[in-house]
Amino acid sequence: MKKIVIYFSCFVLIFFIFPMLFSKRDKDVITDTSEQLQSQEENTNQDLSNKEQAENQGEYEYKQYGTLQLLHSKTGEVETVKLDEYLCNVVSAEMPADYELEALKAQAIVARTYTIYKINHKKHDNSDICDDSTCCQAWISKEDRLARWQEDLRESNWEKIEKAVNDTEGKVITYENEPINAFFHSNSGGITEVPINVWGGSGYPYLQVVETAGEDAYSQYASEATFTQDELIGKLKTKYEDISIDFSNTEDIKILEYTDSGRVKTIKFGNNEISGVETRSLLGLRSANFEVAQSDGKITFSVKGYGHGVGMSQTGADAMAKQGSTAEDIIHHFYAGVEVKDVNEI
Fold it and tell me: Would you state the pLDDT for residue 254?
């Protein structure tokens, strides 16, 4: 009888208890392995998420040009600034924040290119570039920029400017693998000018005469300047002391020659022939694209466009963006034979 009990106990252990124990152990092992795989997958996903987040945050590293020396022309102070932070101040000073985002992005690329060109072709002994728009390009501090905007638009405007700069990080315009001298202006009057007609010299092959539709919708497109006879003589005498005009003779004020873009190349004022560019400067006209007429003892200049007319027209860029053009479309329209590249690759 005792042997039967022992045999029965062994039978129960072998066929019921042991399988249950091993089954639990296997289950624990499987569970542990599953949890480990799930944890590894979560870690991998987190790593990818962190990488994407870093990329989206624009962590672009410039091999060079990451910082620059900025001369504040009013104080003479030279400040070391990060390139893209500086560009936010430039873009916000140079182009209205209510322009299309693609136009602002084009402006950011143009301004970055212009800045790097200036760094490589120094104009100032103690700095790379200055904040005077008549010398280099405009710049305004964030504090001053925000103060000039309507209060309810300040945050959204600045975010839009930052997006235009950050979305184009590192992008520059090149010609033959070199950053170009990326001139720009407010409004071309519908057609741009070549630099040789503005500053002389041999010009740049990528700056040609191009037409742009839609610029007449902007306030910068047309303007008038009217002078009395004495006012006109007075302004011209600041440069030409011997000036003498017979206002009764219609031939004494006459445009003699136009450039290919339709701007005034040479105009006659009595006993002097003056370039259209110089006339613009002496009389404070918005551009050298003008016509002149006399009436009731007054001389009126009807002007098209705003600025020197070379390179990208800002209103033209906005007009193109409104029609669906991208920033790079805009750049290729205004600059001939160029490429938009990552500055680290040139």
Answer: 97
